[in-house]
Automatic annotation (TrEMBL):
The lineage of its organism: Bacteria, Pseudomonadati, Pseudomonadota, Alphaproteobacteria, Hyphomicrobiales. Residues 1-83 form the GST N-terminal domain. GO terms for molecular function: glutathione transferase activity. It comes from the Bacteria. Pfam families: GST_C_3. It comes from Bradyrhizobium sediminis. Residues 85-231 form the GST C-terminal domain. This is Glutathione S-transferase. One of its GO terms (biological process) is glutathione metabolic process.
Length: 237
C-alpha cells in the first residue's frame, strides 16, 4: 500500500515527525502537497466523511488519519516502530503526546500571543517566553526523557528496540539545535543520553539517506523551529 502524506510543502513542521517514521520504515509514500500542489491537499480537507481539521494527515487505503500522534500510533504497530503489547503501544503513544505538548511550547517561544500576529508584533513577549522556556520547561521535558533513557538501560527510550518516539526525540534535538544553537550547546551537557540517541538515529541507514536527500526540507523561518538571534542571545538556564 502506498501512503499519502498531506502537509504544507515548504516546511518540516509537525509533518516531519511522520516523515521520519515513514522513512525509517522504508514505506512507500507520496508527499502530496509537494508532488501535486496545495490544491490536492485542500480538496481532501474540504471533502465529506471524516475530514481532518488541519495537516498533517495520512491517507492509508480508505482511512484518513489526522493528528501527528494519532498517525504515528497507526504507523508504529504496522511497521515495527512500537511495542507489540497494548500496554506498550499506549505507553509510546503517551510519550508522543508529551512530545506534542513540547512542540507547542517550542512554537510559542516565538509566537506567544498567537500565530495570527507577526513575530515583530510580539518580540517583547517572545523574549520573556523564551527565557522561561529555557529556564523551566526545557529542563522539565528533556530531563524527563533523559531519565527514561537512564531507567531503561537500553539504547532507546523503551529499551533495546527503536520506536517512533526515538525518531521524534531526534527531531526535537535537531530542531532545538537549529533554533537555539547557543542555548542548546550549553544545555546538552545535561542530556548526554538524548544526544547519544540523536546521533544513533541520525546514523541509521534509512534516516541517514533521508537526511542527505532532497526529501528532507531544510529548517527555515516558517516552521516550528525558527531561529531569531535575539531569542538565543542570553543564556538563561
Amino acid at each position: 500500500m502506498r501512503y499519502e502524506l498531506y502537509y504544507w510543502p515548504g516546511i518540516q513542521g509537525r509533518g516531519e515527525f511522520v516523515r521520519l517514521a515513514l522513512e525509517e520504515a522504508g514505506a512507500d509514500y507520496a508527499d502530496v502537497a509537494r508532488e501535486r500542489g496545495m490544491g490536492a491537499m485542500m480538496k481532501m480537507m474540504e471533502g465529506g466523511g471524516t475530514p481532518p481539521f488541519a495537516p498533517p494527515f495520512l491517507k492509508a487505503g480508505k482511512l484518513v488519519i489526522g493528528q501527528t500522534a494519532n498517525i504515528l500510533l497507526y504507523l508504529g504497530s504496522r511497521h515495527g516502530l512500537a511495542p507489540k503489547t497494548e500496554a506498550g503501544k499506549l505507553w509510546v503513544h503517551q510519550l508522543q503526546l508529551t512530545i506534542t505538548d513540547l512542540v507547542l511550547e517550542i512554537h510559542d517561544t516565538h509566537h506567544p500571543l498567537g500565530p495570527t500576529l507577526y513575530y515583530e508584533d510580539q518580540r517583547a513577549p517572545a523574549k520573556r517566553r523564551t527565557g522561561e522556556f529555557w529556564k523551566e520547561r526545557v529542563p522539565k521535558y528533556l530531563g524527563y526523557f533523559e531519565g527514561l533513557l537512564e531507567n531503561t538501560g537500553g539504547p532507546c527510550v523503551t529499551g533495546r528496540r527503536l520506536s517512533y518516539v526515538d525518531l521524534s526525540l531526534f527531531q526535537i534535538v535537531e530542531g532545538l539545535r537549529y533554533a537555539f544553537p547557543k542555548r542548546m550547546k550549553a544545555f546538552e551537557r545535561d542530556i548526554p543520553g538524548l544526544v547519544d540517541l540523536h546521533d544513533r538515529v541520525a546514523a541509521r541507514p534509512n534516516i541517514k539517506a533521508y537526511l542527505s536527500s532532497d526529501r528532507r526540507i531544510p529548517f527555515n523561518e516558517e516552521g516550528i523551529f525558527r531561529r531569531y538571534k535575539e531569542l538565543d542571545s542570553q543564556l538563561v538556564i
